[in-house]
Design brief:
alpha+beta; 41% helix
Length: 545
């Protein structure tokens, strides 16, 4: 039996035909007409039929048992197809290649950087593992790269630039700074600017010394004060797009980075006045004084519990709240929000209230108090060292008991946060702009997972800076994908995206000098991700030269 194409009128039909002998002559008999060729090819039904028939093929059984000269090799193709498109369309590839002009490397530096960034996106493993990880992924242009190429590519990113590009006032400028600026100007249009910027920092500890400049001991957000660390800051624009990342020695405090970073932004990206939105950890009295002196617009969080003026004057001020978002049972809608403006000694404060969160805070406190009552009956010795309990206790010489005044004072903070601003924006707009800072915190949670690949084996500042910047570029690609999915009204878990992209493989089968590539089934959210990025899926079966 064999397959043939039969033309009838303007259409062609696929038929299954049998040869047989009748009275010494070979005759053909049509066993089945499968359908019109154009319709079968459009819907991929020929490949489906082939896969179905392969279950009954003895040859297939031989392949599985290893008793055939047929060889097969599977490679993951999903991550590279999606993120290589974003790598190019975001302009990262062009910016790197522009900096590489005139440089004579014996390997493809741009491909080495892309490989490192893709590895950061898809797995949490060391740079040393990246070389082995690449073996099972089809990433064009990376076939000949070795581990030392990846290290040299990171050195290039962290390399100090020539003096004509330098800005000594802000410390050494590196190639990664030039890439950030090129990306900004490349993606900027008439409607994009930095009128509003979000800024936050985190710390990354080292197992080693952390280079000559970066590795210092300081306040560790990872609770590892015994190790050297560095401080990394990220700046996002109003749309949530990462603009740049900054790096400081590990003994740098948050409150000393805000003003220099604002000045550096204005210098690097040629922006005029911009409103800075930052969290309560970035604020000091001197910072506020300087911002007011320079008339720099700001929206800043406050330390409600630690600043006496806030918890005794601002939170207790009478006045009605204005509703911004009503409470709704639909979790897809914005969280409930009310705001109240308070002017105290010439300073403008915005008190924000989420009543749903207030009920949760009250319930959590009640649960702690119930547990505390049971513990007090068993003895008070172990309670004093518990911070959750200690905030509600009154300790006397001969007794320890729950202090009703402390309980009442704590209730004032339920579901609330307080902002201070020198802008003329309405109170509801101030609150909504500050809530966008939480997007930065989500970015840092993402970045923390990307930075799990800590620069353990890097001993020079250039390598460390390049290592961190690769994580930042991975974050840029992650946010590019999030935006494409949001534009198509998709919301997928990142873990699902990674798993389904990794499941898309290409199996190359070679027999008797002929090679064919078979693509596996597109599962889960993978198809919608490809559609959102506008990447066509490879054909199910194709010949490979």
């Amino acid at each position: 039996m064999f397959a043939r194409v039969k033309k009838s009128g303007k259409y062609q039909y696929l038929q299954i035909v049998e040869n047989r002998k009748e009275k010494g002559r070979v005759k053909q008999r049509v066993i089945a007409t499968v359908g019109r060729m154009d319709q079968l090819q459009d819907k991929g039904r020929i490949e489906t039929l082939i896969r179905s028939l392969s279950r009954f093929s003895e040859k297939a059984l031989l392949i599985l048992s290893g008793q055939s000269d047929v060889s097969a090799h599977a490679m993951t193709i999903g991550p590279a197809l999606v993120f290589d498109r974003l790598w190019k369309e975001s302009g990262i590839q062009d910016c790197i290649n522009e900096l590489l002009k005139g440089r004579k490397f014996e390997f493809d530096v741009e491909r080495a950087i892309f490989l490192t960034v893709l590895h950061r996106l898809m797995v949490s493993g060391s740079d040393r593992f990246c070389e082995k990880w690449q073996r099972d992924h089809l990433i064009p242009g990376t076939e000949t790269l070795a581990l030392h190429h990846l290290y040299r590519a990171m050195t290039f990113l962290g390399e100090v630039v020539p003096e004509e590009h330098a800005a000594g006032k802000f410390g050494p400028r590196r190639n990664k700074d030039l890439i950030e600026e090129m990306l900004f100007y490349k993606n900027r249009d008439l409607f994009s600017n930095l009128d509003l910027v979000f800024f936050d920092t985190t710390s990354i500890y080292f197992q080693g010394q952390g280079g000559e400049h970066f590795g210092r001991r300081g306040f560790s957000k990872d609770h590892r004060p015994d190790l050297f660390q560095m401080v990394v800051g990220a700046v996002l624009d109003e749309t949530g797009r990462p603009i740049c990342c900054e790096m400081w020695p590990g003994n740098t405090t948050d409150v000393t980075t805000l003003l220099p970073e604002l000045e550096r932004l204005q210098s690097r990206f040629s922006v005029g006045e911009c409103c800075i939105v930052a969290d309560r950890g970035m604020i000091s009295a001197g910072t506020l004084e300087k911002l007011d002196e320079d008339e720099t617009p700001y929206i800043l969080g406050t330390r409600m519990r630690k600043v006496k003026r806030i918890n005794t004057k601002i939170l207790t001020r009478a006045g009605r709240y204005s509703e911004v978002y009503p409470e709704s049972a639909d979790r897809r809608k914005p969280a409930p929000l009310k705001v109240k403006e308070v002017i105290h000694e010439g300073t403008r404060y915005i008190v924000c209230l989420n009543e749903r969160q207030a009920r949760k805070d009250a319930a959590d406190r009640e649960a702690i108090l119930e547990s505390l009552k049971r513990k007090l009956k068993q003895g008070a010795t172990s309670l004093v060292g518990n911070r959750g309990y200690r905030r509600y206790l009154k300790v006397a010489k001969d007794s320890t008991r729950i202090d009703p005044a402390k309980v009442k004072a704590d209730a004032r903070f339920d579901g609330k946060w307080v902002l201070t601003t020198n802008t003329k924006l309405p109170a509801d707009k101030v609150a909504l702009k500050y809530k966008e800072l939480w997007r930065v915190e989500r970015v840092f949670r993402d970045m923390k997972s990307l930075l799990e690949t800590r620069p353990v084996y890097h001993q020079k500042d250039e390598n460390i800076a390049g290592h961190v910047f690769c994580s930042f570029l991975a974050l840029v690609l992650r946010k590019e994908l999030d935006q494409r999915l949001a534009d198509n009204k998709h919301r997928f878990e990142w873990s699902d995206i990674k798993q389904d992209l990794k499941a898309l493989k290409q199996v190359e089968i070679e027999e008797n000098g002929k090679c064919f590539a078979i693509r596996t089934e597109c599962k889960g959210v993978c198809g919608k991700v490809f559609q959102s990025v506008r990447v066509a899926l490879p054909p199910t079966i194709k010949a490979v030269a």
